[in-house]
Specification:
4-stranded mixed β-sheet; 414 residues; alpha+beta
Length: 414
């Protein structure tokens, strides 16, 4: 869904992976083991075995702890980041649940990297704003030059008085409506921004540990530069989201609610009415949850699906996976396509700028949007800010090695 287009309208490998679920350990996959979708990862099991069988060997305890985390031996990682070991995996999906833009599954390879354990939070983003004075996209008057590519040629420029700072906000409905008309539950709200996600009267007071939302792609890049990190590529994001489970339906396995337990912040379980009807009983309460509310995936990453969509680095093409399969090449550390192509939105040029967003959000539901699956993907206008869209970052191993050399003698990343 192009929020910017809605704004303008309203303002005018190595080897082929084996079938089944394997926890990917290294690019060579020497240590791959089958795991239960709902069980503890093989790394943790191996660590427990080592610490039980060899209790007298202190060195083995250190190795076990490293192996369980999947981190480079002897390496203290960046604060609140998790080591994702990299390897070969089948990216995308051929599942019956997969949308055309997720197909076909194809072999991809990524090298290891550090990833934020959780979304960038409100308190973290506030630190960036306080340190830099940065003004987010939603807080600035929209620029017609960024809107024009999102509308059909010949669309007249809206009057200046209609170009006001604001962002897209989910408002819901009072009754069931036709799903194709998303303008019934989304509004461009002047004054909405990261401090006021639902509009000027809303606030993030008491929500320091919630994901920051209402941030554009440009905002995420600005934060990344300040933090010395970068946005993940689409391949890195999916590899990390899968947590070592090869082609599992969800980031935690194949069962939606194992043992009846909710595993992510999505519409089901949060709202008592069908999407997009906001429950009057809940007082209209719908939104993000604090980080760590739900169990992490196999790599220790929280909220890889649900809670808030996440920006990634790549340009979005709806046909990207089909193009990759036709090329016959393994996708190795892919940086994505050189341009955008998205034919899904009537009234928007198919080549309008789009960046990939991943992971789904608190609005995803089984009837309209099942994007709480690791293969689900969409394209979003990079200048768009939305009340269910945030981000997390990654850091290359070399970058961390260089940074670590400048830290205090104890190696702490303060």
């Amino acid at each position: 869904m192009s929020a910017m287009s809605k704004r303008s309208k309203r303002r005018t490998p190595t080897a082929q992976p084996k079938a089944g679920k394997t926890r990917v350990a290294t690019p060579s996959k020497i240590h791959a083991r089958p795991v239960r979708a709902s069980g503890r990862g093989w790394r943790t099991v191996a660590a427990l075995v080592i610490s039980t069988v060899l209790p007298a060997a202190a060195g083995y305890f250190a190795v076990a702890q490293w192996w369980a985390r999947g981190e480079p031996a002897g390496t203290q990682g960046p604060a609140d980041m998790v080591w994702v070991p990299g390897g070969d995996f089948r990216m995308g999906s051929d599942s019956k649940l997969a949308q055309p833009n997720e197909r076909p599954a194809h072999l991809a390879r990524v090298k290891g990297f550090w990833m934020d354990r959780h979304h960038v939070t409100n308190v973290e983003f506030r630190s960036f704003i306080d340190a830099t004075g940065y003004v987010t996209t939603a807080e600035r008057k929209p620029d017609w030059d960024t809107i024009a590519p999102q509308v059909m040629p010949g669309t007249p420029r809206p009057p200046d008085e209609e170009l006001v700072a604001g962002a897209m906000v989910f408002v819901g409905t009072t009754a069931v409506v036709d799903y194709p008309d998303f303008s019934r539950w989304w509004r461009y709200v002047p004054g909405a921004d990261w401090r006021h996600p639902q509009g000027p009267s809303s606030s993030i007071t008491g929500k320091d540990e919630h994901p920051v939302v209402q941030v554009s792609y440009d905002d995420a890049l600005a934060y990344a530069k300040w933090a010395g990190k970068r946005l993940p590529t689409e391949a890195e994001w999916e590899f990390a989201a899968r947590g070592g489970l090869e082609q599992a339906t969800y980031v935690w396995g194949d069962e939606f609610a194992p043992g009846g337990k909710r595993m992510a912040n999505i519409w089901q379980g949060q709202q008592s009415r069908p999407f997009p009807v906001v429950s009057a009983k809940a007082g209209g309460a719908v939104g993000t949850s604090p980080i760590g509310t739900y169990p992490p995936n196999g790599y220790g990453l929280q909220d890889m699906t649900g809670n808030a969509w996440q920006w990634v680095a790549d340009w979005y093409r709806a046909d990207q996976f089909a193009r990759l399969l036709r090329s016959g090449n393994v996708e190795v550390d892919s940086q994505g396509p050189p341009d955008s192509w998205d034919p899904s939105e009537p009234g928007v040029p198919v080549g309008a700028p789009r960046r990939v967003t991943r992971g789904g959000s608190f609005l995803c539901n089984e009837d309209y949007c099942m994007s709480y699956r690791p293969s689900a993907r969409r394209g979003t206008d990079p200048y768009t800010s939305m009340s269910h869209l945030g981000f997390r970052l990654v850091m290359d191993a070399d970058t961390w090695t260089q940074r670590r050399a400048t830290l205090p003698s104890d190696g702490a990343d303060r």
